[in-house]
């Protein structure tokens, strides 16, 4: 499972890209579109994190037989 | 192994610092993910510990349900501490307190039968 470190970079990259897109859209005068873009970016990041969280919680559940 | 954990931790700290200026959510998500990945890397070692505990009880006939209870309490303690620290990182101290309170209550509930056996043993002695 050493794929994890790439995921951290991906998440940071997505966060930065969404912020840049947001700025560009704001400059272009479409504030609400920029808001939508940053929301989409955050949702993608949260989905990736939730996938890892579910993997962790399942393995902990089987490990400690909670 | 410790280098891997240290490496991931340091990289995550730097990344969350850089993204903190740009977007707060990405920074906190990076720190949450770093914690999760470090724990995922440690899972095989935790499995080893719990298996040793169980073999230990099987060898010199300590009743197994106490060891199982101990492992269960360990799991609850670990999970509640993990979520509480994540919540504290994100600045939500009250949620962190509630999570820890919930963990304590669940551990108390699990330990109840143990108290009963303890009390009965003591009253028998007197």
Descriptive terms for the model:
heterodimer, A: 66 residues, elongated, B: 126 residues, mainly alpha, 2 domains, 4 helices
**Count of DSSP-assigned helices of chain A:** 2
Q: Low-confidence runs of chain B (pLDDT<50, min 5 residues)?
A: none
Query: What would you call the quaternary organization?
Result: heterodimer
Secondary-structure-based class of chain A equals mainly alpha
Q: How far apart are the termini of chain A?
A: 23 Å
Q: Would you count the extended β strands of chain B for me?
A: 0
Query: What is the helical fraction of chain B, as a range of percent?
Result: over 70%
Shape of chain A, please? elongated
> Taking Cα atoms only, what radius of gyration of chain B do you get, to the nearest Å?
20 Å
Mean pLDDT of chain A: 88
Q: Please state the average pLDDT score of chain B.
A: 88
What structural category arises from helix and sheet content of chain B?
mainly alpha
N-to-C span of chain B = 52 Å
Strand count, sense and closure of the main sheet of chain B? none
Total domain units of chain B: 2
**Poorly predicted ranges of chain A:** none
Which sequence of SSEs, written as H and E, runs from N to C of chain A? HH
The tally of helices of chain B reads 4
Main beta sheet of chain A, described? Answer: none
H/E series of chain B, N to C? Answer: HHHH
Strand tally of chain A is 0
